[in-house]
């Protein structure tokens, strides 16, 4: 039997499938389909739009694979049923689980069906670890060039042996999508060299309608030159307003920093920047130059930076703090500074929090200072400085694995003032020296936030043993005294 008609006489015995197919025939407004696959089962979700929100119509239909039944045969049956019934699919999501057996012939058939979904606006494809090889991606995405209406793409091909050839092919497909405005691309942990990433960067230059871009390209075969090429490619997309770049563990050199500076200078529409530099190799003077580039982007209203685990000196951290403080329009700030291997002086954290209070437009603040042995004075400053921020309403503080105990909490309570504006608090106290007596002090601390409406409190002792009776009493008392969700 040929590949083209191998499914013609195949009847897939699916529990609930006939009902599902009948409902789809009756209702032509199915808007989104999701297929979640692993080695044993498939879950199918479909959604319809109502006036207010996306509601689930066929939820949690689970199908057990029978012997000699291919997962892609099931996907074929479902997609084919939609196309035959002329249901205009606008969103499609395909998640392929770790260890799935993927055949090229089957991918060709699915690719052909994808190419026929001409009204598709949103396409999400995620291949779990080692599900795909490089040529699998090319086969599956071969027909998406016909999807002229697509405006949103999410591709996660991390840890799938993606080579230069696949990266170039992927870039060529993307540059033909002239309406593409939202792109999430994860190509981390693959085998892409400087050549492949430079060709991908050239393709990104053609995506002139991009407004939201998230790209993860760390742990490949390219070096500082490759990172520089990607940044220069992004700099040509001048409509981008939201940008996320993940460079975890990469080696950042002068070319990358200079290209990053050009990117910020060229993109006048950029308002939200997320930059993951965690555990990167970057020299102090280059980090300072990068920090200055961010300071000069005065139009930014949201910044997220992960500088965990990098080797930077105390004075550089202080200058970084000063640069952040000069972003007068900033409304949202997230700083991740955990697992400090450089053993930065505690005074640097105090200096950071003191500078933050100059950001008078801040409404949302998140600080991750876990694994750093933060002292009492620093945490006092953090909470005291909240009173200096007139517009702040959402605050997250992660103090995981710091030396916080009863005496620490008592002194903190004695020093703090009442906070009148905070409405949303997320406080994480994991792996602390928390005794049963600490619950009272934590409750007293929370009472200082008079207008708190939403609380996320994470407590976990170092020895992982919590008095559940005391914890239950604490929660009941907290809920009784405060109208907190």
How would you explain this protein's 3D organization?
It is a single chain. The protein is an alpha/beta fold and 485 residues long. 35% of the residues lie in helices and 21% in strands. The chain folds into three domains: 1-150, 2-Layer Sandwich (Nucleotidyltransferase, domain 5), CATH 3.30.420; 155-270, Ribonuclease Inhibitor (Leucine-rich repeat, LRR (right-handed beta-alpha superhelix)), CATH 3.80.10.10; 292-301 and 314-485, Ribonuclease Inhibitor (Leucine-rich repeat, LRR (right-handed beta-alpha superhelix)). The chain has a 16-stranded mixed beta sheet with strand order 3-2-1-4-5-6-7-8-9-10-11-12-13-14-15-16, with helices on one face. The N and C termini lie far apart (60 Å).
What keywords describe this structure?
21% strand, 15 helices, 485 residues, Nucleotidyltransferase, domain 5, Leucine-rich repeat, LRR (right-handed beta-alpha superhelix), alpha/beta, 16-stranded mixed sheet
Compute the number of structural domains: 3
| CATH architecture classification name of the largest domain | Alpha-Beta Horseshoe
Nearest-angstrom radius of gyration?
26 Å
Tell me the name of the CATH class of the largest domain.
Alpha Beta
Total helical segments: 15
Low-confidence stretches: 1-31, 38-42, 44-69
Beta-strand proportion: 15-25%
Q: In what order do the strands lie side by side in the largest sheet? A: 3-2-1-4-5-6-7-8-9-10-11-12-13-14-15-16
Q: Oligomerization state of this entry? A: single chain
Structural class: alpha/beta
Number of strands: 16
Quote the CATH topology of the largest domain: Leucine-rich repeat, LRR (right-handed beta-alpha superhelix)
């Amino acid at each position: 039997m040929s590949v083209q008609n191998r499914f013609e006489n195949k009847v897939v015995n699916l529990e609930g499938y006939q009902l599902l197919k009948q409902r789809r025939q009756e209702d032509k407004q199915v808007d989104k389909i999701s297929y979640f696959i692993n080695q044993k089962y498939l879950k199918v979700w479909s959604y319809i739009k109502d006036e207010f929100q996306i509601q689930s119509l066929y939820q949690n239909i689970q199908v057990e694979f029978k012997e000699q039944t291919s997962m892609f045969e099931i996907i074929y049956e479902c997609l084919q049923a939609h196309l035959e019934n002329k249901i205009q699919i606008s969103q499609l999501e395909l998640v392929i689980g770790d260890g799935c057996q993927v055949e090229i012939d089957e991918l060709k058939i699915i690719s052909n069906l994808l190419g026929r979904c001409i009204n598709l606006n949103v396409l999400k494809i995620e291949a779990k670890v080692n599900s795909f090889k490089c040529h699998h991606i090319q086969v599956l995405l071969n027909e998406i060039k016909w999807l002229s209406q697509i405006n949103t793409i999410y591709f996660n091909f991390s840890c799938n042996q993606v080579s230069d050839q696949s990266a170039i092919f992927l870039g060529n497909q993307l540059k033909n999508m002239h309406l593409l405005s939202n792109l999430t691309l994860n190509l981390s942990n693959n085998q892409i060299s400087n050549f492949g990433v430079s060709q991908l960067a050239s393709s990104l230059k053609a995506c002139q309608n991009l407004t939201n871009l998230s790209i993860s390209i760390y742990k490949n075969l390219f070096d500082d030159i490759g990172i520089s090429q990607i940044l220069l490619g992004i700099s040509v997309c001048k409509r981008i307003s939201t940008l996320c770049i993940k460079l975890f563990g990469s080696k950042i050199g002068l070319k990358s920093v200079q290209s990053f500076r050009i990117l910020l200078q060229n993109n006048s529409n950029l308002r939200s920047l997320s930059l993951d530099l965690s555990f990167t190799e970057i020299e102090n003077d280059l980090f300072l130059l990068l920090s200055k580039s961010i300071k000069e982007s005065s139009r930014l209203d949201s910044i997220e930076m992960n500088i965990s685990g990098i080797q930077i000196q105390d004075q550089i951290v202080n200058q970084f703090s000063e640069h952040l403080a000069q972003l007068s329009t900033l409304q949202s700030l997230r700083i991740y500074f955990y697992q400090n291997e450089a053993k930065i002086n505690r005074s640097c954290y105090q200096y950071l929090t003191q500078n933050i209070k100059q950001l008078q437009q801040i409404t949302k603040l998140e600080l991750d200072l876990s694994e750093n042995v933060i002292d009492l004075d620093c945490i006092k400053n953090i909470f005291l400085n909240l009173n200096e921020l007139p517009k702040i309403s959402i605050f997250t503080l992660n103090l995981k694995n710091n030396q916080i105990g009863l005496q620490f909490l008592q002194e903190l309570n004695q020093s703090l003032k009442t906070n009148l504006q905070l409405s949303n608090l997320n406080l994480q106290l994991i792996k602390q020296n928390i005794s049963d007596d600490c619950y009272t002090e934590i409750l007293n601390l929370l009472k200082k936030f008079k207008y708190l409406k939403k609380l996320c409190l994470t407590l976990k002792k170092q020895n992982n043993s919590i008095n559940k009776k005391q914890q239950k009493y604490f929660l009941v008392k907290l809920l009784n005294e405060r109208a907190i969700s």
